[in-house]
Design brief:
Blueprint lengths: L2 H12 L3 H39 L5 H4 L2
Length: about 70
């Protein structure tokens, strides 16, 4: 985000009543936590892939690879 966008956002926040600012803050916290959860899920998926390779890569399951 560039300085101009930041300043515009700050000005918009300044124009809100305190209860709305609290809602915006809650929403920002929600977005940040959701983003963190997605990163953790992706990291766990990547970390578990080698463990599942033996299960996924076998002749018995080759038919499912073509689906």
């Amino acid at each position: 985000m560039n300085d101009q966008h930041e300043q515009a956002l700050v000005e918009k926040l300044k124009g809100l009543p305190p209860e709305r600012v609290a809602e915006v803050e809650d929403f920002v916290d929600f977005l940040r936590s959701r983003n963190e959860e997605q990163r953790l899920t992706q990291a766990a998926t990547k970390a578990s892939a080698p463990a599942f390779n033996k299960v996924w890569d076998n002749p018995e399951d080759a038919d499912y690879d073509r689906l």
